[in-house]
Backbone:
C-alpha cells in the first residue's frame, strides 16, 4: 500500500516497500449503484447544499491543517488498481476519476500521501488531525468552489477497509479524503491503517 493511498480495487495495491492489501472493487459500489448488501445512506444534514453540476477538481484547501494543494486526476492501472500521486516532493492530492466530481451527488474520493519516501511529509501528513465541523474547499475547473463540512474522521486497519462506506452510493454530495495511518512498520511494512475523512457539501458557489 503506497503511503497515502487506500485500497480501491479487488487487485493488490502495491506499496512503498512492496506491501499490499485487497479490497472490493470501487466499480461494484460506483456512483449510481448501491453497494452490495447496503442501503443508500441518509441524506446530509439540513445545512446541506444542493448538488452542483459536474466539474473536475483543481485545488483542495483544508485550513485547519494548512493544506493548500493542487489536485490531479487518477485513473486505473492496467491491473485495475487506482493510480496514485507520484512519490515526489510536493506531490499533490489526487481525485479518483471514477468517482463523482466534488459537489455532484455521490461520494467524491481524493487520495493523498502521508509521507513521500525520502522527500518527507506528504500532503495529507496531518489528515488525522482534522475534526468534525472543520470546513474544506475544493476549487473546480469551471471556476466554482464546493465547500464541505467534516462529519467524521475514522482510522481503520487496511485489512478492514470500509469499501462500502467510502464508495457506496449516497443521496447527497459527499467527499472522502484518504491517506495512510498508524505507526509505520520498519522495512517494507508500510502503514497498517487508513485515515478516512467523511464530509458533506454545505455550500456551492
Residues:
Amino acid at each position: 500500500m503506497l503511503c497515502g493511498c487506500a485500497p480501491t480495487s479487488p487487485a493488490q495495491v502495491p506499496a512503498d516497500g512492496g506491501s499490499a492489501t485487497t479490497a472490493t472493487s470501487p466499480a461494484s459500489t460506483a456512483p449510481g449503484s448501491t453497494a452490495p448488501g447496503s442501503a443508500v445512506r441518509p441524506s446530509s444534514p439540513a445545512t446541506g447544499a444542493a448538488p452542483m453540476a459536474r466539474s473536475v477538481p483543481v485545488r483542495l484547501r483544508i485550513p485547519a491543517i494548512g493544506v493548500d494543494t493542487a489536485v490531479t486526476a487518477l485513473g486505473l492501472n492496467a491491473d485495475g488498481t487506482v493510480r496514485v500521486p507520484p512519490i515526489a516532493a510536493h506531490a499533490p492530492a489526487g481525485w479518483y476519476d471514477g468517482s463523482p466530481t466534488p459537489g455532484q451527488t455521490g461520494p467524491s474520493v481524493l487520495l493523498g500521501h502521508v509521507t513521500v519516501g525520502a522527500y518527507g511529509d506528504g500532503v495529507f501528513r496531518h489528515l488525522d488531525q482534522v475534526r468534525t465541523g472543520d470546513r474544506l474547499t475544493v476549487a473546480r475547473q469551471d471556476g466554482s468552489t464546493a465547500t464541505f463540512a467534516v462529519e467524521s474522521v475514522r482510522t481503520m486497519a487496511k485489512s478492514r477497509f470500509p469499501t462500502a462506506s467510502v464508495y457506496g452510493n449516497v443521496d447527497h454530495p459527499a467527499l472522502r479524503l484518504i491517506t495512510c495511518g498508524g505507526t509505520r512498520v520498519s522495512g517494507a511494512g508500510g502503514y497498517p491503517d487508513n485515515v478516512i475523512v467523511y464530509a458533506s457539501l454545505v455550500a456551492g458557489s
Observations:
- Residues 6-25, 27-44 have pLDDT under 50 and may be disordered.
- The chain is about 0% helix and 30% strand.
- The CA atoms of residues 11 and 22 lie 6 Å apart.
- The helical segments are 163-167.
